[in-house]
Amino acid sequence: MDYIRRVQADVVACQRCPRLVAWREEVAREKRAAFREWEYWGKPVPGFGDPQARLVVVGLAPAAHGGNRTGRVFTGDRSGDWLYAALHRAGFANQARSEHLEDGLRLTGVYVTAVVHCAPPANKPTTEERDNCVPYLHRELEVLREWRVIVALGSFAHGAVASLLGLRPRPAFGHGSEAMVGSGRVLLGSYHPSQQNTFTGKLTEPMLDAVFERARELIDPR
Fold first, then answer.
1. Structural contact between residues 173 and 158, judged by C-beta atoms closer than 8 angstroms
2. Predicted TM-score (pTM) of this structure
3. Which residue has the higher pLDDT, 61 or 222?
4. Using CA atoms, how far apart are residues 107 and 128, in angstroms rounded to an integer?
5. Residue 73 in 3-state DSSP?
6. Contacts from 198-205 at CB under 8 Å and sequence distance 24+?
7. Domain extent at residue 163
8. What is the rounded CA–CA span in Å between residue 32 and residue 123?
9. What CATH number should be reported for the domain holding residue 206?
10. How many C-alpha atoms does 191 have within 13 Å on its Cβ side?
């Protein structure tokens, strides 16, 4: 556990990307009207979850008024509402809500992180920013030695994870896609639970549940 805390601390202290540093701090100062009373986190957002996780969930980056506000990945925004509700239904989370750091949320058997740990403008990190941050994901996967399945939320995360794991040829991304990583490990693809996908019906709750049901099957084969 000390190792994962060390990675988390290094993430929070990171200053590698000037554009992201400036943006996350500007958002934290100016805030959104609905969160005017909040003291925004305004720093890189570390991963969160069980150090003994057999499932790792990888997203794109924290939301400007979600993780960048609350200090916990996928917390305080609609994407997080969808993700943690799905993890709760799948038995990986003790509750379905993710509101703030002290809301009592606990994860069992799963660790949630992102390719980029700072909120990027327009949710679009540059290639250089991605490459600056990927070493933290590499360290997380090294420390989370029990992992057997990665669920990549969206094509950005899927591509970054595939590159990090050295998968050749690059596996195609799709909702429910599967790629063998080696040593019995699997990379699963899922559409990202962004409002663009959930409001349009591109991603539904049953579709997201099916991905985590498959992850459970791979982790605990009967």
1. yes
2. 0.97
3. 61
4. 31
5. coil
6. 198/78, 198/82, 203/82, 203/175, 205/82, 205/85, 205/86
7. 2-219
8. 16
9. 3.40.470.10
10. 20
